[in-house]
Structures are given as structure tokens and as C-alpha cells.
Write a structure and sequence with these properties.
Blueprint (H helix, E strand, L loop, with lengths): L1 E3 L2 E3 L23 H11 L2 E3 L19 E3 L5 E2 L3 H7 L6 H16 L10 H4 L7 H14 L25
Antiparallel strand pairs: 1-2, 3-4, 4-5
Helix pairs in contact: 1-2, 1-3
């Protein structure tokens, strides 16, 4: 979206905060205007496109849902946007933070939204877990929501693989 004063002109939507953090998460979440504003925007979002069969697992164990989210500005993000702002802020490049700040200011100043405290589901405190547990939790949640879960093949050996370990065959 192109933001100009009070007008929003449709163009190609921005795809915000599609990142793959490499560094460990911060010990404490950063809860500030950007985090609260993104929580408010995500709360007001609508599903965008089709529900997918996949989900993303952050290096720290947090996992996304299986749908893209269209924000009130028309921009697109994923359910980990608040998590990335709270726990992986130091890895977000200035351009991404600039876009998030513009989105938050637009939503709060002109979009009628108020800052919102992030929910536990949005924050997802980092908890590295074995990959099979992450997948099991996702299947359980998908069944609860009557969504079609991802069908994955079991790992051949008994080795636990955590999201922050490399696996060599």
C-alpha cells in the first residue's frame, strides 16, 4: 500500500515480517509501540488467500498458523509477526521496522485501532522442543479447529531433533 496523508492507494501489498531468525531470541520480549500496534493490526486482520497445508517453525520453537493475514492497510503478514517483533527484534532490518512503524502509525492514527497487549498465542515464548512435539502440537490444534492437518512422514530413527539443531544424515 502507498500511504500518503489520509489516503491509501492500492498497489502491491507489502509482505511484512517473513523472516527466518538465526540468532537466539531475546530473554525478555520487547513490548512497545511496534509490538502492541502489530498485535492490534493482527487482531483486526482477515484471512488472506487459501488456507495452506503447512506452517512455519521459528528457530526458537514458535510456530505459525496455516493462513496469511491481511492487515487493515491491505498489507500481508503471518501469525508470527508479533513474535518476531518481541523476541527477534535485533535481527529485523531497518527497512522492515520502518514499514512496521508506518503500518502501526496508520492503523492507530487513521485506522481507528488502539494498541493491544499481545496475546500469549501471538507472543509464543521461545521454548525449543523436539520437532516431533511441535508437529504433534500443530496436528492437535488443527484438529481442534477442524482444519486439515499437514501429513508428515515420521523420522526413521529415534533421535530427537529440536528446531535449533542441525540434523546430519
Amino acid at each position: 500500500m502507498i500511504r500518503n496523508n489520509d489516503k491509501v492507494k492500492p498497489s502491491e501489498p507489502l509482505w511484512l515480517l517473513y523472516v527466518e531468525p538465526q540468532d537466539p531470541p531475546s530473554e525478555q520480549p520487547v513490548i512497545d509501540l511496534l509490538t502492541r500496534g502489530m498485535a492490534a493490526a493482527l487482531n483486526a486482520s482477515e484471512p488472506y488467500g487459501d488456507v495452506t497445508r503447512g506452517f512455519h517453525v521459528c528457530s526458537c520453537g514458535a510456530h505459525s498458523d496455516n493462513v496469511e493475514h491481511k492487515l487493515p492497510t491491505g498489507d500481508i503478514t503471518n501469525s508470527l509477526a508479533v513474535h518476531y517483533l518481541a523476541y527477534h527484534r535485533k535481527e529485523l532490518v531497518g527497512e522492515q521496522l520502518g514499514y512496521v512503524l508506518a503500518l502501526v502509525r496508520f492503523c492507530l492514527d487513521r485506522g481507528g485501532l488502539k494498541e493491544a497487549d499481545p496475546t500469549p498465542e501471538q507472543l509464543q515464548k521461545p521454548q525449543p522442543r523436539p520437532l516431533h512435539q511441535v508437529i504433534s502440537d500443530y496436528h492437535r490444534e488443527a484438529s481442534r479447529k477442524r482444519a486439515k492437518p499437514v501429513l508428515l512422514q515420521p523420522i526413521a530413527d529415534d533421535k530427537d531433533i529440536t528446531c535449533d539443531e542441525e540434523y546430519d544424515e
